[in-house]
Each structure stands twice: as C-alpha cells, then as structure tokens.
C-alpha cells in the first residue's frame, strides 16, 4: 500500500462521514458516493473498504435502526457492490479515461446490487420485523438513493482532470 492511496482512502471515508449525515430515510443516506468514486479511482479493494465504512458510519449515526446484524449484512453487500462496480468499469472501459458504456453498465449493476440484491440478502432478518409490505416499500428508496449516489460519483469522476484518473491504471 502506498501512502497516497491510504491518504486518498481516508479522505473518501471522511466524505462518507459527511454523506452519512445527509439521510433520506433511517440509515439510507449519501454515504456510498465516495465509495463509488473511490472504487473508480483507487480500485475494488479500496472501494469496498470505503463503502463498508461509509455504511457503518451511517448506521452508527442513525443508532443501528434495523439492528446491528442487519447493518453487518449491508456492509458486506456494500463491499461486494463496490468490487463489482469497479471491476466491471475497469473491464469495459479498458484504457479509456471515461467510458459512458462502462459507467452505465457498472452503474446499473451497482443499483441492482445495492437495491434488490441487498434486500434479498436481508430477507431472513427483515421480513419478520417489517413484513413484505415494508420490504417492497424499501426497494424503490434504496435503489433510487443508490442510483443518485452512483450518478454523483460518476459526475465527479467525469469532471476530474485526466491526470488524476490516470492513477487508477497504475493500481
């Protein structure tokens, strides 16, 4: 690990803390935008770590409203989401600094992972507590906020100078 990547990851975690304070509903917030951006710039491992910590901070600030075990599952899902998002973008974009095709495909997969897949993983824990109606009600909120986080991360990534985006090729 290089100092530059560690410091960058720490800055993204700090941004996640700020995003964790911009809540939409309960522990659904703008904490994952830095994780998605970190996944694009620093790679899947850093992105996964940033995404996990970002959600943990949101859950902590919210008082773990759905229970600690639920938020552990969400943290695992966030890590998997960032890994898939980063790997798909890197594979499809290849050597391009910004690929609309890659960002669209990675973004759609990110929303699917963060929305329906996350809720499916949480079904054994949440279904008894909030019922099927509660699960269905969460789906558009979780998916919509995931999409907003991804769009914001992609806009920031697009606006960054190419010399900053070149770092991702070295990692």
Automatic annotation (TrEMBL):
GO terms for molecular function: transmembrane transporter activity. This is ECF transporter, substrate-specific component. Gene3D superfamilies: 1.10.1760.20. InterPro entries: ECF_trnsprt_substrate-spec (IPR024529). Keywords: Membrane, Transmembrane, Transmembrane helix. It comes from Pelosinus fermentans B4. The chain crosses the membrane at residues 6-24, 36-62, 68-90, 102-127, 133-160. The keyword Transmembrane helix applies.
